[in-house]
Design brief:
Number of strands: 10
Oligomer: single chain
């Protein structure tokens, strides 16, 4: 479904992503691991059209999307939950969620999808008229995920969904990710909690200083001594 070949990305003279190649097959959850500054978020932003690549190719469903505008990528079935949530603090919860359906015209289906979001995140139903900026961090993350799901993505990218959240909320967020996985949604996940990420992923890649260092099934990487020591704290 997603195929990246020899991707290079620069920030000025800084070579942030160096010849990275990866694939995500339909129905898979793939985790992208690495230390801060390894280039993980840069890769996600480049996929989403928020950062320009220096060279390489990115294909979604065999279609080159390297220079496609972000709003057009939404129509191609690409959903994005950004690092730091990036919700609209002065809009209500419901308005934030509906903003994910801005490109859609199927009103009855939009209403149905909104109710589905409330089933996934019941707390949001009780707070649908509350300004999103007044929510807790965990609730804001739920809004960010719900907004992305409202786009009806075929492929969902999640950038650090558990960052800064209490352990109980993290567990809830990952329960939702597992639910989406069981529904067959294809996902690429960047997550600081490597152990949890490798628990739900089918496969994973490890980045070091902008380069691909390791790849394999989640089980292989969980049992890899280097990964266990550096990323799993074992």
């Amino acid at each position: 479904m997603l195929e990246i070949k020899d991707l290079n990305v620069h920030y000025g003279k800084v070579h942030a992503v160096k010849g990275v190649s990866l694939t995500v097959n339909k129905g898979e959850v793939v985790s992208l691991l690495g230390a801060n500054g390894a280039g993980k978020s840069t890769i996600l932003k480049t996929i989403c059209g928020l950062k320009n690549a220096s060279s390489g190719t990115i294909a979604l469903n065999e279609k080159n999307i390297l220079h496609v505008k972000p709003y057009k990528l939404v129509k191609e079935g690409l959903g994005y939950v950004p690092e730091g949530r990036k919700i609209y603090p002065l809009l209500t919860v419901k308005e934030n969620l509906l903003s994910g359906a801005y490109h859609r015209h199927d009103r009855s289906e939009i209403a149905s999808d909104l109710e589905r979001i409330y089933e996934l995140f019941p707390i949001l139903k009780t707070k649908e008229s509350v300004l999103a900026g007044n929510l807790s961090g965990g609730q804001q993350q739920m809004v960010a995920m719900g907004r992305a799901i409202m786009t009806r993505p075929q492929f969902l990218i999640l950038d650090e969904p558990s960052m800064g959240l209490a352990p109980s909320v993290v567990a809830q967020i990952f329960d939702i990710i597992k639910t989406l996985q069981n529904l067959g949604l294809t996902m690429l996940l960047v997550e600081q909690n490597a152990f949890t990420a490798l628990t739900i992923a089918n496969r994973a890649y490890v980045l070091e200083t902008g380069q691909m260092a390791l790849e394999g099934t989640a089980e292989e990487l969980r049992n890899n001594s280097q990964v266990r020591e550096i990323y799993l704290g074992m």
